[in-house]
């Protein structure tokens, strides 16, 4: 949508590439440092959604730091891997039930569910007013300190990405997307709204240029613009394009 709009408004060809791979800003930062030298973009737009990304970041473990404060090595990330390197979040229905990867996935899931049952995490109890993306067996790992660390890791990484791009004269914009819960007026609305406001304050404190999509999505349909708790529909993406277009035209 943006590529078509920007090409028309600039009376020429503007190329927009979706370079997102991985599941959180820290993982994106590794791809970014590979992509930028190859594609030499004029600007980079990075989107975050806190209910999804905070719990993703909470499970990332890295080491080392470059001159921009970005990590140098990944030791652990969001999803468990089997012996063959396949991600274990979806459990395959094919093959023998005792093949190594499937057995490992079953044992890992059993262990996680048992740990949660023995020591329930209040964040994921039915009467909790908070919610974060999880895989059920990893709920016992997503404690409040881990989630707080995930939030701070997001902004350390985003700030490092901004420094990395600014050194090369490349513009940067952070896009903050609210979760669907912000618009549903139910048990998760208050805390989901609060974490968006917290992200906006953190971006301002770190002087990160950003746009928040909450008001625009609220005006155009709110919860109806999401296909699930955090991913916008086609109409939702149309709203996002409407907000981003004048910013990028200004660039």
Describe the 3D structure.
The protein is mainly alpha-helical and 251 residues long. It has a single domain (2-77, 129-250), classed as SGNH hydrolase (Rossmann fold), CATH 3.40.50. The protein contains 8 helices and 5 strands; from the N terminus they run ααβαββααβαβαα. Strands 1-4-5 form a 3-stranded parallel β-sheet. β4, α6 and β5 form a beta-alpha-beta unit. α2 runs parallel beside α5 (144-166) and α3 packs across α5. The longest helix is centred in the middle third of the chain and has 23 residues, at 144-166. It is globular, with a radius of gyration of 20 Å. The two termini are 17 Å apart.
Largest beta sheet: strand ordering:
1-4-5
Give the percentage of residues in beta strands: 5-15%
CATH architecture label name: 3-Layer(aba) Sandwich
CATH classification class: Alpha Beta
Oligomer kind: single chain
Largest sheet: 3 strands, parallel
- What are the secondary-structure elements, in order, as H or E? HHEHEEHHEHEHH
Structural class: mainly alpha
How many domains, in number, for the residues?
A: 1
Mean pLDDT across the residues is 90
- CATH superfamily label: SGNH hydrolase
CATH-assigned fold name: Rossmann fold
Straight-line distance between termini = 17 Å
Broad shape = globular
